[in-house]
Structure formats: structure tokens, C-alpha cells
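Sorry to interrupt, but I need a hand with the structure work. I would like you to pick a protein and set down its sequence and fold. Please put the record directly below this note.
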Amino acid sequence: MSYEQQVFRELALPNRAQVIQTILTSLLKHNGRVREFGSGDQEFADEIADAFDLSTSQRSSPLTTFVRKDKRLKNSPAWNRLLFRAADVAAKNRLISRPSETVKFTGRREWMLTEAGFEEALRSQKRNIIDKDNLPIVTVEVQKARNKLEKAKRVKDYDPIDPSKRRGSQTKESLIRSRGFRHAIVEAYSFSCCICGLRVPSPDRLIWEVEAAHIVPHKFYGKDDIWNGLALCRFHHWCFDVGWFTLRFDFTVEVSTALRTIPSDQGFMGSLDILRLGLRENERIRLPGRNAIYPHENAIAWHRGKIFTHQLRG
């Protein structure tokens, strides 16, 4: 038994496998990533310790290690050492990525879940693997897909239709790209609806009310490209999909004249007329900070011709 293992045993600390599982499940609460721990950031280490209900002594008792680079002895909490060891093993097993790897594609030193780690965390919580497509978790693979979407070169003759979707089969790669699309759109629009500006998080601030809407919808084989997306609250997402409004090529709102046919007692939430007041003719939508990721005119043209129908115009 090594000196480290002896100290861990004397302090009755949890074993490495237990710590790995808790790291993975705790990462779910942080949308899949946390800042590098072990460099003065004790918050995540304390969170994992709380999960095991560790005593003050278990958390703070020192472990002496030799730092070869500086040729000196270093005292640090044994618990922090165990946590780092567990994270290192999880990284070797490709369940998470190390901060030295993550920084290359996020610009931040973070521990981040991989798809394999995400699935393992769901299994440990006895949750269906299918759930991962509906959770706001960023994995290494999703982040890389998102980076690719954000860095793609805008093309003039863009086709927003993906013929491969007609085959009806979704690959692992396409599912990851779809999740990357959602994260890219929502963050590009600062977690706000581009029509009404609604920006509301869940109580734990991990999930936002806003949705990533396809301009050419999935059911019409719309691509998961950033130029085929808008950030919309759930209400305006529905209004857009059914054709109550569309966009002009200057990104102003065009409202269906069929709105005049709605009975005067409909479209209200309490006393607020959210349908009529929430859609303002000629108002420019809130756009991302870079025009390279603005909605593409070809996607807008499709929506104007296929969704915003002549029948709705009155």
C-alpha cells in the first residue's frame, strides 16, 4: 500500500471509484463543466465532499507530497489529492477532459464531460440515455461541434435544406451536431428571445427559457446550421412555426394580416394582449454580435414562402 493510499484509508475517505462517479454526476449540475480545481478554487471540491458528508478533519487533514519540478515538499489536503487523482483516472478513461485539453477548444481551463462520461453519469442516476438530448449539458464533443458551426464560413448560395435528413436516420454525429446547434444559437442571442427579449433562467440558473428555433424546421429537413436558427421564447417559437409572423431580409418583423381575424377575446394572458402586443410590425429583431452568424437570407426566403403563407396574409 502506498503512502497516499494509507493516508486515505486512515481518514476513511471514499474510494476512487466512488469519487469518480460523484464527479460525473456533479458535473451534470454544472452543465457538464467546472473550473479547474486544485488551483485555489475549493468550491467544487467542497461540493463533492458535501456529497459524501465528510467531516472537517477529513476535508483538511494534510498529505505531504514531493514536487519534483521544484524539488520541495508540499502539504495539501489529502481530500483534494484524492479528488484530483480520481479526476485524472476519469480523464484517462475518456470520461472527462483535463483543463489542459479543454482550454484548447474553449479558451477556459475546465474539467468537461465527454459523451461517454455523460452517459455514465445518467446510468449511475438510473436515467434513460435518451434524456441527454433534452438536457443542457455541454460535452467535449458538443463543444467541438458548436465551435465548428460558429467558425463556418458564410456562403451566399447557402441551401438550408439537408437532403440526408429525408432518410429518417439520425447518426451519433448528427445528434451531437443538433445539440451543438442549440447551444450555439442560445448563447449567440445572449439567452434572450430575439422578438420580445425575454431572458429567464431556471431557479438553479442552469436552464434558460429561450429555445433554439430552426427557420427551416426539422420536419422540412432544415439544417442544424447557425444561419438557420433564431433564439425564441416558447410562445414566439410557436408563433414563428405556425406563420403568425416572419422576417424580412432586413431582419424586421412582418406580421400576418390574418391577426385581424382573431376574436377580440383571444390572444390574452390575463389582461395582457401578448399576441398583438408581442408582435410588432417593422420592429428589428435582436441579433447576435457578429453579422457572420445572422440568419441567412435563403433560410428567411424559405420561411416567407413556405410557412408565412398567402392564406395567412388574408
Summary: The first strand starts at residue 33 and ends at 35. The mean pLDDT is 90.
